[in-house]
Amino acid sequence: MAPIIEIQNYSWRYSYAKMPALNGINLIIEEGAFVGIIGPNGSGKTTLAYSLDGLIPSQYRGIKQGAVNILGREVEAYPAGALQKLVGVVFSDPEAQFTAMTVEDELVFGMENLGLSVPEIRERLEWVTELAELGQLLEKPPYEISGGQKQRVALAAVLAMTPRVMILDEPTSMLDPVSRKRVFDVLVRLKEEQRNTIIVIEHNLENLASLADRMILLSNGELLLEDETHAFFEKMDLLLENGIHPPGAMLFIHRLMQEGYYASRLPLTVDEAAACLTEVVARLKPPGPASSRG
Amino acid sequence: MNKTLLGYVPEQSPIYAVHPFVKLFFLLVVSLFPMFIASPEWNLALMLFILGLMWLSRVDMRVLRIYVPMVISMGSVIFLSYTVLGGVHPEFGLAARIAGVNIYWERIRDASVVYARILPMIFTMVFFLSTSRERDVIVAMRSVRIPFVVTYVFAMALRAAGMVLEDFQIVRQAEQARGFDTAGKSIPYRIRKYVMYMIPLFALSLRRSEEFANALLARGYAFTGEASRVKRADYVLTHYSFRPADLLLTAAIGLAFAALLVLRFGFGYFELERSWFIAWLKTALD
Fold first, then answer.
1. Phi and psi for B60 in degrees, rounded to 5?
2. Model pLDDT for residues A240-271, shown as the tens digit of each residue
3. Calpha distance A150→A293 (Å, rounded)
4. Nearest CA of chain B to the CA of A64: how many Å?
5. Closest residue on chain A to B159 (Cα)
């Protein structure tokens, strides 16, 4: 796959800050990849997302060094509105991203900005409404629906613009577990059915770990680790040192690995962890005749 | 219930059968009526007519209660400005002398006329905002090919007013939760402490505007450059059709305005000299 995002020695310092928010970032993301970005608060995750969507430097004042290229072109070289056809961002605060007073208008707004015709808009509207399960909400004001629904509206509004890169900046940080799962259900379907490059910034790794092809760890504005998801989580000590808390099931199997009970691949899901545990238990079971009852 | 710019209106309201352009046309034209009507009784009749339309549209009439203080305070300011603070006018007829201040009949009359003109204007706006959604404003303005940027900024301004009120409630509740409450305190105290609400409200508004600018850019909207010249599909217009009944209503509003002008300037109707209310007021004060 060809790289869609190339970041070369990129640093950004906000004009009001003494330290750079991002420092010496080098990163290549291939088209179609599902990438997870994690890191403690203040590590530069949102700054990275804004840098990829052109919000930085166009909307914020600061000093930039290095280059952020989307499809081989520097983000500043894109005319206003053109980069957003390629890169869509879903922000962490659902209410902060609404531009209209009904869910339908919200979904349509971005498509109209792209200059799509009414039949095209209708077709995409039906698609995203079905994908994000928003059929009952189209006439409602986006401010009056639940947090999970709001975030699905925001996701669908960006998705309707069919950007080649979708960035989700902590899309579930304000949601309850059920709503969080429903947002990730949409992402699962996207990964299965579409070829978008998806970048998800998240604190909660329970859902992300099983979806991401690659993971990135940011800390204090620097890229500490970038690897294929399994290999990434195998560097568990580094993650823990940097305040990252992997899913409990993964951590449990990692502990078994440290104790020497298990030596194979680290599981990413609860199901995989259960399979690992079954394997460990089977190996530990003492050999002998089968017990009988009665 | 559908949320409008100023409240909620039931989905069964007959107002939804009316094209948004007709509502906007009504607002713009009927707001002009009081400018050409000097007789207070006609302006008050117009206000009652608009209240009747609100009732027919199934607007929750309880919302009118929130305008009562505004109507009273506005009336007080107008009457005080014209009478007590109206200056010395020996050429006018003296109606009363209170605490050394001359109160002239002409100033009372003029204050009554101005106040009666403002009331229907206010209620026309309340009627429009109570029965229209932001979408209606956009549809109405786009129907007559007003540029999208003008339409959108106008709709956003209407929405922003509502959001500021909501934010004010949030700030107030947050400060109440921390033990700061001006309820039951004197008015000077409240005015002094108002800054406690205004500073966070101002900060919140700044944050909202930054977020909104980011959201617009993230959705590919640009005020300048190539992206701003994109031909918009106006998808929302596909939900509305301008029917013969809308045409009739629009024509009726336009004809009513034309008739008003003819009656006013051609036949002298609605003039002060013909006002029975002014005549009654003069008798009452003499």
1. -65, 105
2. 998 888 888 889 999 988 888 888 888 888 88
3. 57
4. 19
5. A101
